[in-house]
Design brief:
The chain is 27% helix and 34% strand. By secondary structure, the protein is of the alpha/beta class. The chain has a single domain, classed as 3-Layer(aba) Sandwich (Rossmann fold). α2 crosses α3. It is globular and about 40 Å long. Bound molecules: adenosine monophosphate. Adenosine monophosphate binds next to β2, β7 and α4.
Length: 175
């Protein structure tokens, strides 16, 4: 099936002018969900990966399934203040102002091979900060993958410029 047909677009959410690419319809469709995970893990078949890192919140759903399929561990990257043990954090830019994301300081051992996962990459602000956070812990960020790419916003290219190979399944033109 064509995965793009399983993704719903909500105009003007969360604010006027934004086309929100809603993957809850894809997650709720058994065939689309399975096909998405199969396609996401395909490039890593046969590789020995240690961890999958998922970005809160939709990256947890997809990352958990990817980690299970790859027999890797799962590591959450969360918004500030949500993780209970010692954390390492990184600041990143949002459209207005800055925010911070955190990871448990002991979640990754130096040199571990990690794949970064989220539902969608737009400007790449979130994913490039997450990749840097993983590297700050000594991770070998071997790849990043997303269901949706908004290529006109340049995020996937920004990650590639950090020497992180990127795969995406579906592209939408514009923003
Ligand atoms: P960015 O940091 O600009 O790459 O934004 C990526 C993050 O924001 C991801 O966690 C996405 O879930 C969310 N996001 C950004 N733009 C959209 C959009 N048009 N539709 C759905 N989610 C989006």
């Amino acid at each position: 099936m064509n995965l793009i047909d399983a993704i719903r677009t909500i105009p003007d959410y969360p604010k006027p002018g934004i086309l929100f690419r809603d993957i809850t319809t894809l997650l709720g469709d058994p065939r689309a969900f399975r096909q998405s995970i199969d396609e996401l893990v395909q490039p890593y078949a046969g590789l020995k990966l240690d961890k999958v890192a998922g970005i809160e919140a939709r990256g947890f759903i997809i990352g958990g399934a990817v980690a299970h399929q790859l027999s890797a561990g799962f590591v959450p990257i969360r918004k500030k203040g949500k993780l209970p043990h010692d954390t390492v954090s990184i600041a990143y830019s949002l459209e207005y102002g800055v925010d911070q994301m955190e990871i448990h300081a002991d979640a990754i051992l130096k040199g571990e091979k990690v794949v970064l996962v989220d539902d969608l990459i737009a400007t790449g602000g979130t994913a490039t900060a997450a990749a840097q956070l993983l590297r700050n812990l000594g991770a070998d960020v071997v790849a990043a993958c997303f269901i949706v790419d908004l290529p006109d916003l340049g995020g996937a290219d920004r990650l590639r410029a950090m020497n992180v190979p990127v795969t995406t399944l579906v592209e939408f033109a514009g923003h």
